[in-house]
Amino acid sequence: MTLRIFDTATRELRDFVPLQEGHASVYLCGATVQSIPHIGHVRSGVAFDILRNWLAAKGLDVAFVRNVTDIDDKILAKSAENNRPWWEWAATHERAFTRAYDLLGVTPPSIEPRATGHVPEMIAYIRRIIDNGLGYATEDGSVYCRTAQVPDYGFLSHQKLDELDQGEDAAPGKEDPRDFAMWKAAKPGEPGWETPWGFGRPGWHIECSAMSNKYLGGAFDIHAGGMDLQFPHHENEAAQAHAAGDAFANHWMHNGWVTMSGEKMSKSLGNVLSVPNVLTQVRPIELRWYLGSAHYRSMLEYSEKALQDAAAGFRKIEKFLDRAVELLGAEAVVAGAWRPAFEEALDDDLGVPTALAVIQDAVREGNAALDAGDTAAVQRIAGEVRAMMGVLGVDPLSDTWAGEDSKGRGQGIGAGASDEAIGALDVLVKAELERRATARAEKDWATADAVRDRLKDAGIAVADSADGATWSLG
């Protein structure tokens, strides 16, 4: 069966046929590193890691690009609120995202380009758009895209041009309120770069158009990201590419949100549901299992019960594999071939829920074989389970998860720690963080830095955000 993917642009399932035989090219919009990562942020990382694994499992050489937005309005605002240099703020939270991806076993991308490292490429790309008559500079040094003149504008978000609102402030020299900024003139005190049009910084959308072009070319297979990015971000990325004369993405994939009580995670909930905090409840492999268990296009309604139920379900599969190893030895329990029904499920727009049912059926059969002492069946089924779990990135016997304590609480605070120990440590560390926050508010930087350094020496990493500091064992 051919892999079929729901294309957001056409709103239909389409056969995935790579533009280059034997090769798949994927661009995923990564983090805007303005705050600590919560589970809503990393869901796309997990969802499209499964896509990447499946493309590779089907024999394709996958080029996977995931960008980092390390300068934008929110980063500048939050760093100023916290009296920190913008570059330090961005770098601190980029490291927090990298740690979160690593904890959840997300394969590092082929390359992870930063916006600030690709300003020359953005300038060159904007030049192409201006030369094609679809971009213009204003007196203050900003550059805009002539939205109304870009062919097929609105094809992705399915909105009418006359009804669009870019969410940008009015600006002098802007020809049409529907035009969007590709380059922004820097305000007093803001960072920027010298360009042919003046001193400024990138607009949000130009970075992805320029970086995908640099690493994947003018046409590539799949553009992926959260559903909230369809407009204006992805629509405007495509508009810039088309204005420059590039075909851009052949397929568009968008993942659903993590919700709570039916609402997208708010800023306050984002702190509560930060990856380090959630990992006090379950192990990283269990959190990955939970985030990847729903269909990527569906909303994932978070609750502690749902999280714990998912973790318990994962442990049943893990227990079967452990029993198989005890019976046969680790060297005999190796990944084999996945079941045809598993392949059919993933070929149908990455139908993970159906694929999980196939795994659970196999585990039931494997447990029955264990009880019956049928070693040949146990070995075959364990190999199937490992192969299928490996595609989903949650094979507990793989090198990725080697050394994970199956009874541990999670590496965000400490695998294997008891609830009492976790609670006691949390009280002590939070007291130190409160003292640090008071010192920072009073601009007593020496005391604030001393607290941070003392925690660091104790093996405790602190991540700052506009919502407060969180900690994890580093």
From TrEMBL:
Q: Where is this motif: 'KMSKS' region?
A: 264-268
Q: Which cofactor does it need?
A: Zn(2+)
The reply to whether Protein biosynthesis figures as a keyword in the UniProt entry is: yes
Provide the cofactor note recorded for this chain's UniProt entry: Binds 1 zinc ion per subunit.
Q: Tell me where in this chain the Cysteinyl-tRNA synthetase class Ia DALR domain is found.
A: 341-402
Q: What is its EC number?
A: 6.1.1.16
- Name a GO CC annotation attached to this entry: cytosol
**Is the keyword Aminoacyl-tRNA synthetase in the record?**
yes
Positions bound to ATP: 267
Record keywords: Aminoacyl-tRNA synthetase, ATP-binding, Cytoplasm, Ligase, Metal-binding, Nucleotide-binding, Protein biosynthesis, Zinc
Reaction catalysed by this enzyme: tRNA(Cys) + L-cysteine + ATP = L-cysteinyl-tRNA(Cys) + AMP + diphosphate
Subcellular compartments: Cytoplasm
Instruction: Tell me which Gene Ontology terms the entry assigns under biological process.
Output: cysteinyl-tRNA aminoacylation
- EC primary class: ligase
Q: Where does Zn(2+) bind?
A: 29, 208, 233, 237
Output the Gene3D superfamilies linked to this UniProt entry.
Answer: Cysteine-tRNA ligase, C-terminal anti-codon recognition domain (1.20.120.1910), HUPs (3.40.50.620)
Q: Where is this motif: 'HIGH' region?
A: 31-41
Which SMART domains would you find in this protein's record? DALR_2 (SM00840)
Chief place where the protein resides: cytoplasm
> What InterPro entries does this protein's entry cite?
Cys-tRNA-ligase, Cys-tRNA-synt_Ia_DALR, Cys-tRNA/MSH_ligase, CysS_C, Rossmann-like_a/b/a_fold, tRNA-synt_1_cat_dom, tRNAsynth_Ia_anticodon-bd
Give the top-rank taxon of the lineage listed in the UniProt record for this protein. Answer: Bacteria
Q: Which GO terms describe its molecular function?
A: ATP binding; cysteine-tRNA ligase activity; zinc ion binding
The record's comment on protein family reads: Belongs to the class-I aminoacyl-tRNA synthetase family.
- What PANTHER family does its record include? CYSTEINE--TRNA LIGASE, CYSTEINYL-TRNA SYNTHETASE
Subunit arrangement?
Monomer.
This protein is called what?
Cysteine--tRNA ligase
